[in-house]
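Example: Heme chaperone HemW.
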Amino acid sequence: MPSALPDGEPVPADGALPASALAGAADRPLGFYLHVPYCATRCGYCDFNTYTATELRGTGGVLASRDNYAETLTDEVRLARKVLGDDPREVRTVFVGGGTPTLLAADDLVRMLRAIRDEFGLAADAEVTTEANPESVDPAYLATLREGGFNRISFGMQSARQHVLKILDRTHTPGRPEACVAEARAAGFEHVNLDLIYGTPGESDDDWRASLDAALGAGPDHVSAYALIVEEGTQLARRIRRGEVPMTDDDVHADRYLIAEEALSAAGFDWYEVSNWATSEAGRCLHNELYWRGADWWGAGPGAHSHVGGVRWWNVKHPGAYAGALAAGKSPGAGREILTDEDRRVERVLLELRLREGVPLSLLREEGLAASRRALSEGLLQEGPYEEGRAVLTLRGRLLADAVVRDLVD
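Written out as structure tokens, the predicted fold is:
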């Protein structure tokens, strides 16, 4: 969740949505994203809306404390219940992200989940995920989460090489994420993800292969692999600008992606989104699929984004301002936008093209259809699905996904 917030119209003090957003809501899946903005240290590449204790000291008072954060976030869950009214939907997915959610006590994460269950109810097969820093959990912590209803966990591994972790300012030691997978399995977690990053300055092909081998050897059923994006304003961007570390180019990113695809496929993983692989349909991250398919989700927490029925809004960024708004009985929303039909069409193309199932050709305008025919002739789209009316990326197309999708929506 990037820290910069877009512009938009004001959010009503009570958070009310237009009637059009709630029309037909019972037929749409609903998910919750819970943002925990706290980190022990700031990673050099991170541009997310996160805060260390030092950064919060003196700026938010008791309102910004992580000691009472679960209570504060529960207030927003209750607000969501009021805003969504008598909608009978049970929550299909819950995803706790950050930041480092596992800096909170395990009981606090369970308390936040319980608030959703109490206010909305959870579907019998609900997917409940938390992100976790490998150094911030132990077997007892994981057991509490599992007993409290969490059934999926995502560990930030990033790399198996110490010098790569050092460039990223990651504090865990090599080998700890793999141990966490075993501990999570022992606690009863059904689904475990490892996050990896490729293209870090100073990383070699062999370093990347070693990270993939270590991740696969740990036995997760899901792997996310992302190219490092150097965001302006981050410590890493400043280091690159000063010439302290080299910038990794796009050709290296492409080579690393191909290495990942080869290793993951050989290990029984199938891609289902450009940066995500799973060993089975059940292993796919359903919560992320809500985002990619334009479903409804409520994002609770500082800077969190939400979408319900074509209305998208975002909360104030600072934990103190966020808690203060809720304490005053007001929505913490900072701004919102009401999407037009054309906005939603374009977003469907942008997001669904990245999925294994692709995007219906019927969503494309005349120029986009012409571009899709060119992409097909250039080997960027698969022939079989195209003949059946869908644009589905080939492996080469996945390497050039951003360029392909720009052509299809222009």
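The longest strand covers residues 122-132.
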